[in-house]
Amino acid sequence: MRHGARTFADAQGRAAIEAAEPLLLQRYRFGLRSADYLICMGCGVYVGAVFETQGAQLATINAAGLDLTAFRGHRAAPVDYAEESVEERLRRRRAAWMPAALNVSSRAASAEEQGVP
Prior knowledge:
mainly beta; single chain; 117 residues
């Protein structure tokens, strides 16, 4: 199942997120507006989240969205960040999320190319 969230990050790693069609990449911000959550408008899958800090982008990736064999059947560990302040949340992300490059194609797809009548 590709829907749902099973996110991971490796502070020592790097993430490259690419969107070939800018109109299919939806950014969403929850209440604290501390990160952009990336949704594929073509299939509705949550891809990951990014935020900018000190001139760099950091990300976490949704393994469920990638449908990786190694993650199938693993139970997700529930987490609750509701009590975090914005500063606590950003500090946790700076420590755990991985450096990232978010590349979005500069070519905007026409409605016809996207299959929209």
